[in-house]
Amino acid sequence: MNERYRLGAARQAELGGPGGVRARVYDELADIAPDLHRFAVEFAYGDIHSRPGLDAGRRELVILGALVALGDTRPQLEAHLGSALRAGVTPGELVEAILQALPYTGFPRVLTAMTVARQVFAERDLLPVTNSTAAQEN
Q1: CA 66, CA 84: separation in Å to the nearest integer?
Q2: What CATH number has the domain spanning 55-138?
Q3: What is the model's pTM?
């Protein structure tokens, strides 16, 4: 195990570990791409996610913005929404961050991301999320 992997694994553990969605995605591909998980740990978490400059919550918000913009990223959205919650980002902040992507990515991608967010919040008994503008106006 090299230093990049150790650093990345530590960062991943800090954000909730390699279990859950992350592990399932990599496990499902291990028979054809066994190095994919190592690349993610070393590069994404060891080289990039472990950099100084942003706290874990802000970093997860940036990642979520990119995932919403990309579209077709349900497993990654699920994993990073969980990481954001563990990093102290509130459900209301996550909803607002996803909504901020609407003028840039469009309704289909935001609706997909919001559906995944609702699923993640429901699994953690965090529903309803009541600090949206609509809830404040009522």
Answers
A1: 14
A2: 1.20.1290.10
A3: 0.88
